[in-house]
Amino acid sequence: MWISIGFSIIYLFCIIYMISYRLNIKKAVERSDEAYYPSAQTKLDNIIVPDRWEPMIPLDKRSKSYRILHWGTPALILLMSILFILVFGMDFLHGSFINFGYIFFTFLVMIRHQGNIYLLNDGVILNGRFFSWNKVKGYKVEKIVKWHELYGLDERLNNSYKVSLLLKRGIFQPNYVVLVVLTEERDMRTVVQLLEDKGIEGTVAYVLPHPEVQR
């Protein structure tokens, strides 16, 4: 009985997550054109996102990644529903709970859009999710020089700038940091200035003082 309940909870969590994630990405796509940064003139090759440390892919309904997410989500929900029915109908639960949990986790990974960041007038889009400015607690910029944790992971990261945003604690989420790497100092200063203009305080480490970021 408890295994059946646990499996049902995992199933419902996956379905809710996939639907919520798809809606968040759809809203983010619709608002991405309002962004102050990156703007239409910004080279997205200058914005490197984890985990693969690849240039940021724009939130665009015509992009391959968005189409996969848009059409793949209902397809995966259908597959998971069929699997769910088969599991209970043919009594496959015994001894297979962990395996089915792994399958569901794999489904979640398959529909993830690559990381992204957009600074808007009223908030920031981080990885497809919108946060108002009052949810952003602070920022930190670090130049990726020798001995930095990211130095050497990829040639593009060396001597670039790691930008982290600290979000305020929510009811069901802890504080956490979202980061991107900017390869150009000009882009870093643009982002810092936009954050400062919104009253977001932070620090810039391993770079020379500059009027735009001095306190």
Describe it:
- With 215 residues, the protein is of the alpha+beta class.
- It has 4 helices and 9 strands; from the N terminus they run H-E-E-H-H-E-E-E-E-E-E-H-E.
- Strands 2-1-8-7-6-9 form a 6-stranded mixed beta sheet, covered by helices on one side.
- A hairpin with a 4-residue loop joins strand 1 and strand 2 (54-55).
- The longest helix has 30 residues, at 2-31.
Indicate the topology.
Layout: H1 2-31, E1 47-49, E2 54-55, H2 64-89, H3 97-110, E3 117-119, E4 123-126, E5 129-132, E6 136-143, E7 161-167, E8 177-182, H4 185-197, E9 202-205
Parallel strand pairs: 6-9
Antiparallel strand pairs: 1-2, 1-8, 3-4, 4-5, 6-7, 7-8
Uncertain segments are 208-215
Query: How many helices does DSSP assign?
Result: 4
Mean pLDDT figure: 80
What is the percentage of strand-forming residues? Answer: 15-25%
* Largest sheet: number of strands, sense, barrel closure: 6 strands, mixed
* Global shape: elongated
Task: Report the radius of gyration as a whole number of Å.
Answer: 20 Å
DSSP strand count: 9
Spatial strand arrangement across the major sheet? 2-1-8-7-6-9
Helix content: 25-40%
Listing every helix as H and every strand as E from the N terminus to the C terminus, the arrangement reads HEEHHEEEEEEHE
Structural class: alpha+beta
Alpha carbon gap, first and last residue: 61 Å
